[in-house]
Design goal:
Layout: E1 2-3, H1 5-13, H2 15-23, E2 26-28, H3 33-49, H4 54-63, H5 78-95, E3 98-99, H6 103-106, E4 107-114, E5 120-131, E6 134-143, H7 159-168, E7 172-179, E8 185-192, H8 195-213, H9 236-240, H10 243-249, E9 250-252
The structure holds iron/sulfur cluster.
Iron/sulfur cluster binds near residues 14, 17, 221, 230 and 239.
Length: about 270
């Protein structure tokens, strides 16, 4: 069996939700404009580091969604997202704080790590390069609000970066966050992951897989209202037996044999 960060984190969030998605095949409908735009923007970044026309790439990719009925965030529109994306690409070039040499090799790297009992773990790393002259592993994010930076050192607790550090062996990590707000901004956030954190993450992966293979899928709704994870869970309709909710949020695909989640590792 092949596992990914998305799978492990979904199980840890709620084992029942994991079962709905990976075993029963209930997937969230892919209609969020922000998600689609994020994929188009990543294609533009690949063009930028390959010294191609990144703005033309962004337009070409995003144009495919022009007449698609996507769900836009409050105040967002197709034009507005394009405008923000162009602005962010200009800022990236102006700042010139990120370098990725040999983009063919160092962008979208697939890394596989063998796990006990014939399992394996797969991750796609956005880039390996330099931020402010420091060699590091880089993850891109597109978001509509800034990432929290305080208290200092918060980023070293980011579980996805710890996962990538664990699988790649690279301890210096960075998030480059493209913030699509009224005045677009790029955050360059850096952290060092320790060997101890990586060792603990490896143990977490193994114990989580043990739970999955033992078919333990109890609901885990989180902490009390209003911090209850169920309120933002795409599988809420299934747990409530609310057919209308199910139909508006989910689509059912083949279950465990469906491996197209491998393409969604950037969730
Ligand atoms: S609604 Fe709550 S209990 Fe049900 S799958 Fe989602 S998080 Fe788990």
């Amino acid at each position: 069996m092949t596992y990914s960060y998305t799978q492990i984190s979904q199980y840890l969030r709620c084992p029942r939700s994991y079962r709905y998605r990976y075993l029963d095949g209930w997937r969230e409908k892919d209609i969020r404009a922000a998600m689609a735009f994020g994929r188009c923007f990543e294609a533009a970044l690949a063009a930028y580091f390959s010294k191609e026309d990144s703005i033309a790439t962004l337009f070409k990719e995003w144009r495919a969604y022009r007449d698609v009925p996507l769900e836009y965030g409050k105040g967002d529109s197709w034009d507005k997202l394009l405008h923000q994306g162009v602005h962010l690409l200009h800022m990236l070039a102006q700042d010139d704080r990120v370098q990725v040499k040999r983009p063919q090799k160092n962008l979208q790297l697939k890394i596989i790590r063998a796990l006990p009992h014939g399992n394996e773990f797969v991750a796609y790393i956005d880039a390996i390069g330099h931020v402010d002259g420091q060699a590091c592993l880089i993850d891109w994010k597109t978001t509509s609000s800034r990432y929290q930076e305080e208290p200092g050192g918060l980023l070293m607790l980011d579980p996805q970066l710890i996962c990538y550090s664990w699988i790649s062996g690279i301890r210096e990590v960075a998030l480059v966050v493209f913030v699509r707000k009224h005045t677009p901004e790029i955050q360059y956030l850096k952290a060092t992951i320790s060997d101890e954190q990586c060792r603990e993450f490896g143990q977490l992966v193994e114990s989580t897989i043990d739970q999955i293979e033992a078919a333990r899928f109890s609901p885990h709704s989180g902490i009390r209202f209003p911090m209850n994870g169920c309120t933002t869970c795409s599988h809420l309709g299934l747990c409530l037996g609310n057919q209308q909710f199910v139909e508006s949020n989910l689509v059912r695909r083949p279950g465990a044999s469906d491996l197209d989640w491998l393409n969604q590792l950037g969730d």
